[in-house]
Amino acid sequence: MRKNTARWSVLLVVCLLVSLFPNLGTTAQAAGGDESAAVSNAVYAVTQDGSKKLLVNHINVDVDNPQKSDYLAIFTSGTPVTNVAGNSNVVKVKKNNAAIQVDAQGVVLKVAGPTGGLNPTNNAPVAWEPDQTVAIPPGGFIILASDNSWASKNFRKALYHAFQAGDTVFLQHGGAPVTPEYVLNLPSLQVQGAEGATVTTATYNVQGKVLNYKPDAGLSVTVGGTPVAVGADGAFSQTVTLVEGGNTVSVQLLKNAAVLQETELQLVYQKQSGDLIEIEAPPEDITIVVEGPKKPINYIDKDVTSISNIIALFTPEYGSKIQVPAFNVAIQVDKDSKVTKMINPASGNSAPSWVGGELEIPQGGYVVMAQDNSYNSYDIKKYLATKFKVGDLVKLRKNGNVVSVTDLMSGTGAVPRMQLDGLSMFTTADTRTTIAGKITNPTGASLTIGGNTVALQPDGTFQHTAELAAGPNYLDAVLSKNGNELDRKSIVVFSRPSLTSDKQIILWVDQAANAKKFQSSQSVLHFLTQAKEAGVTDIAFDVKGVEGYVSYKQSDLTHRPYVSEMVASDRKGSNPDLDLLELFLQHGHALGLKVHAAFNVFAEGSIAVKDFAVIDQHLDWEERVFRPEDNGAIKRLRESAYGQKGLTGGSGGAAVLFVNPSNDEVRDFQLKTFEEVLKNYNVDGIILDRGRYDNETADFSDLTKAKFETFLQQRSKTLTKWPDDIFRYVDGKRVDGPLLQDWWEFRSGTIASFVEETRDLVDRYSSSKGKKIQTSAYVGAWFESYYLNGVHWGSKNFRYDSRLKFPNDSIYTNEYYQTGYIHALDFLMVGTYYSTTPEIQRYLTLDSIVTNGEVPLYAGMALADLQSPALQREIFQTALGGSNGLMLFDASLANWPIVKASIDNEAYVKDYQIGMSKPGHPSSFIEGSYYNVSRNSGDLNVYNEEFGTSTGANRFGVEVVADATGKVTKIANKTQAISWNWGAPEDNNSAIPAGGMVISALDENGVRTKRQLVANSYNVGDDIRAAALSGYMAYDGKTVSTAYPQIKGHVKLLGAGTDVAVSLNNTAAAVATNGDFTGTVQLQQGSNTVTFAVYVDGMKTNEKSIQLTYTPGSTEEPDDSTSPSTGGGFGPGPSTPSPEPKPVDGGVVLPSTASETTDAQGKPAMKVALDAKAIAQALDALKKQGGAAKEIVVEVPATKPTALVTLSLQDLVKAADSVAGAVLTVKVGDVSYKLPADLLDSAALAARLGAKVDDLQVTLSIEKKSGADAKPVADAIKAEGGEMIGDVYDFRILVQAGSESLEVRDFGNRYVERSIALSGGVPSYATAVVFDPVTGEMTFVPARFKQADGKTIVTIKRTGNSLYAIVAADKAFQDTQGHWAQADIDLLASKLLAKGVTDREFAPDRPITRAEFAALLVRALGLTERQDDASFHDVRSGDWYAQAVAAAAGAGLINGYEDGSFRPNQVISREELAVLAERAAAFVTSQPAKGTASALQPFADASAISDWARNAAAFAVAEGLMNGMSDDAFEPKQQSSRAQAVVILKRLAIQFGLMDR
């Protein structure tokens, strides 16, 4: 406390100085904080230097109840109230609000709200943090800022610019510094009532309270200028008289006649016609006011179905009871005016739990029901839910006077009421329908339906069969009594006899959500196979997304970028080497699926993710919008306030960039997009999506204006004021102009003509290709508002009927009808994205009426909203009954087993339990939702590599990644979920490790349960397991006749695990290595609980209890035929003994089983996994064969492009230790790879990966490249004038520890052999080459060619991995003709080892420099050039020879000079050449190269050879690598020529097995 006091003392001194010398800095207040007009109670927040001070508008007041706007509010430590009900220690900071958290020392701890800095284009925050609560620090405070415009208001902006984290802030009152405690005790004014409220009486009761009120402190209150009495607790109340319209009521707090604080209430008095009937709740505090809060009653004894935002009263004259919908609120009041029952009361501070029900209407009492469109936005349902409770007394008022319910009744007795069974709007294939229902209080009532009299039964029930005409039928049910119509209900039925049971199921594959998931042809095939098996018949493949990228390669007319070029972080990553459309067509057609290409027509960019494929090159195409936020200006979308809000992540901003459909260039470009697909691909149809205007605010460009004027001229009309003749804005609301209807018709005609042009284009290609190509569209089902988007997608024969109840029926003129375009389509998909049967039927019927039944209609299903299997089945079947089929949106949300059951109209039963271990809780586990299905809201799923390469999930989930050992390596959004701060979410879409798993959680909106459970349960480094338990359902609820039944089931591991234990009622079951288990339980007669428990490696993953009944003599037995293994077991393999390794010359062939999988790039692969047991068996077999046996051979089928062999690095180390020179040989068809067991430095690799050697896994990969993958190599060979023989192969070694991995490409000084067998013979000059995919360069690599069994075996030796190919390139040079070294030069040039100075010249006699020979030597030896420094001061990294010199130095071939130089441009002497040849020989043989002095005896100048070169010269001569310049002269100092260097290299390569003779 002393420290706090001392700190505040310093701040008080600073504040005092500022108050004494106000001109030290510029004063800046928040808007509304004009200091000259400020009241004396004003509190300011001041910066430490006094340059800025902000007026605080509210002190310790709940600013959200009633809602305040445009303010700075302070909440000090110890405040009795904040804006969080029931917790005055925290403050709620809503999204788009700003706040600072200040500690007891005055230091800003946190700035909440704005995040990501300011956007330079509008100086507004880049993003806003989601809703959050911030704790008030002890002794400190929070300042909260709110306004509705960053640009034009200065509350949030002022706070943001004044204070940042770490700044010091102090408080000022009355020109003097004060502490938060002082502010806490200041008197302040709290006024009840919402600003801007509309009232229906001429009087209004203003209520409030003075906080910290002291009767003897000279405080007083005035309301509307009139002094009012203030109670001892500070409460006050005053009734004011209002005038019709707007009223401003001033409430002031005064001290000794000086104004301390003033609040203004804005009230609107709206005089009602007729009697004002109100319901009144009990007063909140009877000691303050005697009247409670009131609300008008809008309807009495009337069916209010579908009437929004009302309160209705139901008396006994309505009937004996009332059905209350699930989302309404109702109270039952008895004859004594006491609440006896409620439906959907508020639960504390939370919203109701929302369950409907039936309420009786008591005799002498009544029921009041409230319904509105939003519980939080309207104070209607909330009023009933929060202001009343059972036992309260309720008052009814008529024109201000308290009355009884009988005063509001007609007095004529119970009024007949009509209730209809079933739906009021539906589609059927039948030609007749039955309408049934009930009339309550039927005495004297009569009923007609469709003009036909219907008989009523004594109990009021009725049933009528109506004949239906094909098309729309409007049947009015009219209830009358004594000739007076009491009620009328319309039943709208569309009769569509053409509907059959043969339904099409179209699956929409959205580009943004799915493209990146398809990394291989196999993944496309797997996906389409799943869809086909689920019942899908057609694919709507999104080939052009909203961003403008396309999912096809042959964009020869538009040159649109391919989808792999997307830049948005959650959408990029598509495989650039695939043509997705072609793959979908290839595999889809093979499966019998139709594939339609879908286009986002007039969308050309995503503002939400800031990705724009082509629009930035065509800014004139971008829509021009006329919106109220732009103050009358017409702006390009991204320059408008709406667009800027979208670009900065603000809510309510633009998400998609539309282009102008009136622009001829735009239309032509879209048509070309369609055409390049029609021309180049065998599609079954073209789908138009977003073939519309953005919304009613577009397009207002000059181009559109000119076209509209031409349109008007044809109608003899003139545009005089643009855009006011269409509409203008007054106070932000649209005011229609005289040409608005013309405008709607112009826009709709614009879209219709484009659709017709599209149909013409498609028909031309249908004719030229000799097949029917369909034209279709997707539209929203809500036709009644689609005119705002410039679209009439219905029939020209559609005619509006008032019983359709459209909100604006003036649209539908004869001219508007003629803009319908359904005649240009073969079918239509409508977005019936609803989750109730009435809504689905309503819109299917409406859309059938609008289209006049002229084309098949497919109901769009939003899978995101239909995750409950029962709900999905209900909605699917409802939609199938009223349409030609379904369109499922979107593929990324499909849970295939549920989809299949819903289509087949079968109950989905999940037949397994997925569970995960819980670290630190070995006897507990976490139950998940599904495994290996797409994650949806509410799911907690587990994925292993069977699902694919990644989870494909969005950013707002929590994902836990565990490697093949079970170790958690990564957790996405752990911190975000725990703190529940999602301002900066991390990407999900986690890569699924080979042999590992990913746990992925996502809650429903507003729920945090699953994400926080996962985030709190797991940490990086944890050891976890997951498993799926199945088979238990075969026994649940069944009866057996034995007390000791046998129980079977299956455990499927997902990720790591070897030891699986299953118990049944704590008795161990026998578990096979494939996951099947069998056990026995002891039962008592009668019902028994049987509990299955699964432990993986000692960690609990599952527990499931079932009920099993034992009845002696029972003939019923459970069917356990489905319980054995469904695959995905654990352990090394079957329980049968493994075959022994097969001896072969030089080693053993290891028996192995290959499985289909995908490689790291998602390409199809065959994989063999070697375990420790298999390696141990192989080593034992090698030892039995004797010392010559070194090879462990693993054969992988060559049925896929890639072959993978995986094993533990520790097992390789053991092999090297057990058998000297052990080699692991992988054979894939005609290709093999020999990996020395001791090649990899296990300790170094473990250190680089930060792991233990025991945790390292090795994957050896051999991939045959083809198609686009092989093209760069083929191009490089062609550029050299060569021809490729055979295929290109990529050899890789990957070492992995958990999620971390690295590729080993450079083996230092070790050669590794790989061989390729070619059919038949090859030219003598053929060579092996290595291709660098980064530089695109191709160079010689050491290889030997051998003929065997009609094949040429090419054995390649190199000290690294890369892409390899065999090449034939016959080369010669003009200047070597007749030269003594011509044959050798031509040979090495053809081998791509020696290079000419030009394509035609070699310059054989030109001296060769040290750098040139180093490069030749590195190529000849097959060394991997290095990026690192060669440590010579005269070799720079940018020199062409730098990497070769580094490689030569690394291999010990060159040392340089004593001064640290290499002298690269110095001509190399013959004795230096001899030294390099000697060192090269030593490198290849791994043995010192020794010469004999006698070899130099023939040379008279032998003594001139330098001592350091003498042994090398002797070696070179003895081995035939070098000769003398004459018989008796070696000439050691003579410069070497390029020809001499080539000859020596050729001899060296042949001598030491790097090349054939």
Automatic annotation (TrEMBL):
Presence of keyword Glycosyltransferase: no
Keywords on record: Signal
Lineage top rank: taxon: Bacteria
Domain SLH: from-to ranges: 1368-1431, 1432-1491, 1496-1557
Leader sequence residues: 1-30
Pfam families xrefs: GHL10, SLH
Region named Disordered: 1110-1162
Protein name: S-layer homology domain-containing protein
Species name: Paenibacillus oceani
